[in-house]
Input
Amino acid sequence: MAGSGHGAYSPPRYRYLDLLFALLGTAAFLADLVADLWVASSYLQAGHCLWGGLVLLLLGLSSLAVQFFSWAWFHTDPGEQDLPSDRCRDVLHLLQLGYLYRCLHVLRVGWRVCRQEAAPKERHYAVFLSHDISMLRLFETFLESAPQLTLAVAIVLHTNKLEPFQGLGICTASLCVAWALLDYHQCLRSFLLDKSELDQRSSALYFLWNFLLLCPRILVLALFATLFPRYVGLHFLGVWAAFLLWVWLQGTDFMECPRREWLYRATVAVILYFCWFNVAEGQTRHRSAIYYSFLLVDSVLLAGSWLWYDALLPERAYLLPMLPAALACFVLGLLLRLTYYGWFHPTLRARPSQDVVDGTEGEGGDQREELADDAVGFRAGAAPALVNRRMHQLCQNHFS
Output
């Protein structure tokens, strides 16, 4: 979606393919919602009130967080004439419909852009909206889909039986995780100036190493939950608090309000509980090495606890091969990650964000000035493009 070349500014494109991805993303969100409600109702009807309640609790907490982010961004981002009033948007988010409204809104704007019935400003706005939706989808995935996937696998391992509604829930949750990771990566790459770097191999490799590292983590958490269901919450709170401290020490500056920044840090800590997420600019080699070392030790302790107390039972013997398979999956994921960063990860500068164009100075001002000098600029007197500051910042963190 990003333009390329030096000398003249090329506005970001919004193509029919982007519109199709937005439509599929909306459909996946609705399908996942229906599947979650079906899973919860099936558990409740079968008398498993705790399992059904946990599904609904995860669904409710993730929805509250996503709606809050969406509401906060609507109140701080540049407004458009065709948006409803602030009070109407407040009501939509209060009814937990704000994210769905964003999805439908970008479909409407994107349709006008693809049919060339929109002004150039709306092309920027369509890309702007799609970036926010990608970020909200990532939040929703790791606040709801990943924990529900862990819960579903734990229940299947505990009961030694896979019901149709459980299979549907596992499939939709896995689909949402895969889609969110790939869509987030593509949105980050849309800021790169050199379109030749936007190839399918690097995107597929990025998704594959993330997914291979995520699957063993979910498996060991599910195995631990089958044996120590009461201690899973304590384990989550302890690891989450450690990651929250780690994110705070890296000095994130994602939200406009410092108090709301803590919600972002808490959300990132949840993501880090499952997989790597870069929140700071600069070389990530040492940070990622510390993270994966911590995650490996934690996962080995969880798997070892399960192996020590439960795996030697005859009815659990079939689960033993899963542990070396999970370790092999983890090692393969690390090797693919090294391959990606060694040969496929671009190190190009990204398109300058709105604060670069306006000449905003502050922390990191020298780097922003360098970005503005080396990137495609705006003609003198022309209105600056609408660039998603949040996603642009994450792009700088990822590709610096």
